[in-house]
Amino acid sequence: MPKSPKKAVSESDFTDFESSLAELEKLVERLERGDQTLEESLKDFERGVALAKSCQTTLKKAEQRVETLVKKDGDFAVDIFSPDE
Questions:
Q1: Are the beta carbons of 12 and 65 closer than 8 angstroms?
Q2: How far apart are CA 51 and CA 42, in angstroms?
Q3: Distance in angstroms (rounded) separating the CA atoms of residues 41 and 30
Q4: What pLDDT sits at residue 62?
Q5: Which alpha helices (DSSP H) does the chain contain, by range?
Q6: What is the pLDDT of residues 54-81, one digit of tens each?
Q7: Which of 6, 9, 37, 52 is the most buried (most CB within 10 A)?
Q8: What is the DSSP code (8-state) at residue 49?
Q9: Distance between CA 6 and CA 81 in Å, rounded?
Q10: Does residue 48 contact residue 28 with C-beta atoms inside 8 Å?
Q11: How far apart are CA 24 and CA 42, in angstroms?
């Protein structure tokens, strides 16, 4: 079965990413405090895994978009990003 084409990153993807990341940070803080029941911790952990996967997917789409936009000598190429340059 052929793979479906990958959807481009949209503005809503970035909004969803930001809100997912903020929620994930709150979950981590709650889990680190250690004052929840086991059941609450498991629910937060499961939610955190789902949020992390969602964030990872959005980041991968963004990475693919950047790779497509980087062009050298008429060919597409991947440049290593270095924030110090």
A1: no
A2: 14
A3: 8
A4: 87
A5: 11-33, 38-69
A6: 999 999 988 888 877 776 656 766 666 6
A7: 9
A8: H
A9: 23
A10: yes
A11: 14
pTM higher than 0.90, yes or no?
A: no
Tokens 């110090």 identify what position? 84
Q: How far, in Å, are 16, 53, 64 from residue 58 at the CA level?
A: 9, 9, 10
Residue boundaries of the structural domains of the chain: 11-76
**Owner of token pair 């990341």:** 21
Q: In the beta sheet, which residues pair with residue 71?
A: 76
Which structure tokens are listed for 50?
Answer: 């789902």
Which is nearest to 28 in space by CA: 13, 41, 17, 11?
A: 41
Tokens 């709650």 sit on residue: 30
Residues in the chain: 85
* CATH class held by domain 11-76: mainly alpha
